[in-house]
Amino acid sequence: MNKIAECSVIIKDDFNNIFLVMKKTKKNEPKLWYNIGRKIKGKESEEKCVTRAIKDDLKSIVFNVERLGEVINISNEVCAVFKGELKEKVVLGKDVVEGKWVSISDIDKFDLAPDEKEKIDLFLNI
Questions:
Q1: What is the CATH number of the domain that holds 97?
Q2: What SUPFAM superfamilies does this protein map onto (predicted)?
């Protein structure tokens, strides 16, 4: 088993929509959409990493967390992919510009960051 470098969580609602965020960027950088995710710090567990990412970006708590699998990102690092649900209103963190609930059929209309499509495909194929 490869060492997990980062964790990503796909937030879903009761209608199987997923929550995507647009992070702050510099002026000339493209504005891309992401799932919630973070690099693992030190000896932090994958679940703690997911909880920290949700708390930092959405000021919320994630429930029903379930590991879906792993993907290799463009940096050749292993990313653990989870799915989870929120039970309270989303309040965007300081590094997030916008957040949006997106239906599965509309995913292709969004300019996703590299690797994000693979994570969503993993979610859809479970």
A1: 3.90.79.10
A2: Nudix
Number of Cβ within 10 Å of residue 31's Cβ equals: 12
0.85 exceeded by pTM? yes
Straight-line distance from the first to the last Cα atom of the chain, in angstroms, rounded to the nearest whole number: 21
41, two tokens:
């710090």
Other C-beta atoms lying within 10 Å of the C-beta of residue 88: 10
Domain span at 37: 4-124
% the chain with pLDDT above 70: 99
Count of domains forming the chain:
1
- Position 116 scores a pLDDT of 94
| Phi and psi torsions of 114, nearest 5° | -55, 145
Q: What dihedral do alpha carbons 9, 10, 11, 17 form, nearest 10°?
A: 180
